[in-house]
Amino acid sequence: MPLDPEFVAMLRCPESRQPVAEASADLLLSLNARIRDSSLLDRNGKPVRRELDGGLLREDGTLLYPVWDDLPDMLVQDAIPLEGSQAPKA
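RESULT FIELD:
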């Protein structure tokens, strides 16, 4: 179930204060495939072990905050860095 758009509009990256937006289905499919093959790492370099239900993409496209059970995890250490600023936008 998608997050409430009004709720998402209020959220900001706790590190940079940039707005976030819901990640696209294509981006989530790609990241979940990497989770299944244990190649997706969080900000601390630890493998992400649980598939994403959703994600909040930072405006610059370089960081994704995971969403599990309809709850966004906005902790910087749990964020998932995306390769370069050419990451797919929401």
